[in-house]
Amino acid sequence: MTFTKLPKAITAEELLSTPLPPVKWIIPGLIPAGLALFAGPSKAGKSWLTLWLCLQVAQGKPVWGREVEPRTVLYLSLEDTLNRLQDRLFRLVGSEDTPEKLILQTECQSIEQGLEEQIVDFVHNYPDTGLVVIDTLQKVREVSGECYSYASDYEIVTKLKKFSDN
Asked: What is the pTM of this model?
């Protein structure tokens, strides 16, 4: 029997002897650098959780016992108004110091319509950026007459993943 090595196939021996770079974490053991998705039913609290996580990273405060390095965060809150964001921030930070490293936007371009350039420019201007949050994916999809499906969601996420790897 002949074995042909498949692309990306590796023996256990090769894998164990290969030094691999450690995972880079934004929130250790919870959110790695790169692409991460939060998914759940409508009105389940994803936006509240996401904004809270953004605040924790921007302020360098622990998340569930995990130490976090303060980093600049871009939060694209595309279903909110500035009034609603302000109210949520008051509820989350109270009278604490203003989180200077949290940058909020309620509008942006779509994928392949300028969003990528906007994010590149942001990261260029804020080289300590740790998170770029897009709330929600539906708001940055390409505009088309087709119904959205798992396949189109997968394609969009693949584009974002490729972008986040660079």
From this structure: 0.76
